Amino acid sequence: MRSSPYSVMPSRALRTMVVLTLAAGTALITPTARAGTGPSVHQPSPVLAAKPYMGWSSWSMQSSKYPGLNPDGDYSYLTEANVLKQADALAAKLKPYGYEYVNIDAGWWRDWDWKPEFDRYGRQKADPKRFPRGMKAVADHIHAKGLKAGIYLPVGLEKEAYGAGEVPIWNADGCTTNDIVYDDLRTTNGWDSAYKLDFTDSCTQKYIDSQAQLFADWGYDFLKLDGVGPGSFKSGENYDNVADVAAWQRAIARSGRPIHLEVSWSLDIGHAADWKKYSNGWRIDTDVECYCDTLVTWESSVDDRWDDAPAWTRHAGPGGWNDLDTLDVGNGEMDGLTKAERQSYATLWAIAKSPLYTGDDLTRLDSYGLRLLTNREVIAINQGDTPPARPVTPSDPQQVWAARNPDGTYTVALFNLADEPAAVTADWSTLGFTGKASVRDVWNHENLGRYKDRITRTLPAHGSRLFTVDPHGKHLRWSRAEAESAANSLGGNASVADCPACSDGRKVGNLYAGGKLTFNDIVVNKPGTYRIKVSYLSGDARSADISANGGAATPHKFASTGDWGLVSSVHVPVRLKAGKNTITVDSGTGYAPDIDRIDVPKSR
Predict the structure, then answer these.
(1) 270-277: long-range contacts (C-beta < 8 A, 24 or more apart)?
(2) What is the number of other CB atoms lying within 10 angstroms of the CB of residue 333?
(3) Domain that residue 83 falls in
(4) CA 393 – CA 383 distance, rounded (Å)
(5) Is the pLDDT at 498 greater than 60, yes or no?
(6) Does 7 reside within a domain?
(7) Is 232 in the same domain as 167?
(8) Fewer beta carbons within 10 Å, N or C terminal of the chain?
């Protein structure tokens, strides 16, 4: 259970940084600034978030119990001196590789006891002990290093800023804090630490404008807006902050400065279109930090991303990206991970096209961590035209993720998420071709030669490999079998239903508590193991038992597609005989996804 950020100990999720940005894929056109409120000369700004941002965030060290990080009490790491020390290290060690943002997270306006500072207009004000020279001086130092500065806010009007409703709003004659919230002072955000803003009153937008203008005048380039809903483990009208995010987008456009807007945390995928429309990035999950004596652990909660990222893959692209949270792989002792786990962590973030921002102490990077953070080939996958990868096999302990690149090659990652070593195979049929392919080991910058039909590697617990695969074979041909076909057999509660997103407009659903679907008359010319492509729909992660010809079934977990109206596909191995076969999808005692169709390779 998360505590309020306004109690002595703030919530773990408060750490998520706020980034101010424009609507995904749109350019920021900066208006002429008001006299005295911004720079006097404006140039057209480039599209923000054309690629995932790279940098450093303060929260991982703020929130950790690692010895010595927070000597003056919880979250005391956040100071001007520490931020500037990390900015200097980022400039020296990581800037040549594309890292540029230095992001200050929660607490910059709060003292050691977490009591806040506000200016006379209800806007957050730097705590004088944490940031004695103020926030503009910090941004100036960061900019002098050729870097960009990021800052943080929780969504809503902080309760302490309300001031009995009598606090005036900057540059808004007659407006006070009483005008910008609901009369019943309903609360909002992930901690209920703020009053919900009422955007039916024009004063409310002016308050957001005043905050954005303040950050622009200070010179900040990034805002992380935290506790945003629907999400942050909250739902319902009070926690719907879409209007807030839209207001921030408008305010940034008026401020005269391009600012990247990042929203956080565990955002509702049902509002993905809103996050894409109004922001440049969105946290898809809970905090990655463990709030323990290291920065992270594998189980809490690095490993969650393999389950949670697939549903979001379709939403990432230039202008807005899926944010998997901080990449803490730079120091094994501090991070609390094995070398294998650190590489897998970095691999998923890279291929998922997540922003690459580390929370490590950049002055203490070990040699292995520095190699992980500065591998140019891996960074190129994250920053280039390569699309986000997705699983091509089910969400089982051994997984293959892949993406087809614009040049016809494939980015292919092998993951062993089990707690013991295991072999993982990438079969070329799951990529859509057969025959030979050239393989390059990306992490090790090594050409491995040509492999026929597949590549297999034995990986340590939580280990990975990352390849570029260049096909030299031929395109695979497929035979389609629709789930709703009259030739199939349904068992239990299984039934046919309409499905606009499905290939023939129908699907088979109600696969639960023994419900099953059997595809009959699946014909292949040769016996062997075929990796059939299962197209399915599921609003949450579900499992199904897959079998052929009445043989033993193998359970597989299917990742959420993000919505019951969206179709995804994965490849499942089944052993088929020459001639006619049956393939059964059985819910067992649980709940299985809805099935659109299967596709069976015509040749192996």
Answers:
(1) 270/230, 270/563, 271/230, 271/231, 271/242, 272/312, 272/315, 272/562, 274/242, 274/245, 274/246, 275/245, 275/315, 275/320, 276/23, 276/24, 276/315, 276/319, 276/320, 277/23, 277/24, 277/246
(2) 11
(3) 12-383
(4) 25
(5) yes
(6) no
(7) yes
(8) N
Q: Distance (Å, rounded) from C-alpha 90 to C-alpha 569?
A: 40
440 and 484 housed in the same domain: no
User: What's the CA gap between 27 and 559, in Å, rounded?
Assistant: 34
Per-residue pLDDT of 457-467, as tens digits, reads 999 999 999 99
What is the Cα–Cα distance from 195 to 17, expressed in whole angstroms? Answer: 20
Strand duo 463-471 + 454-459: pairing: unpaired
User: Does residue 5 lie in a domain region?
Assistant: no
Q: Would the CA dihedral through 136, 140, 142, 147 be positive or negative?
A: positive
Please give the Cα distance from 160 to 194 (Å, whole number): 8
pLDDT tens digits, 301-355:
999 999 999 999 999 999 999 999 999 999 999 999 999 999 999 999 999 999 9
364 lies in a domain? yes
Give the residue among 152, 153, 5, 8 at the shortest CA–CA distance from 74: 8
Do 530 and 517 share a domain, yes or no? yes
DSSP letter, residue 431: G
Percent residues over pLDDT 70 in the chain:
92
Which residue in 419, 330, 423, 289 sits closest to 90, CA to CA? 330
The span from the CA of 270 to the CA of 141, in Å, is 40
Kindly state whether residues 255 and 156 are assigned to the same domain.
Answer: yes
Does the pTM of the predicted model rise above 0.85? yes
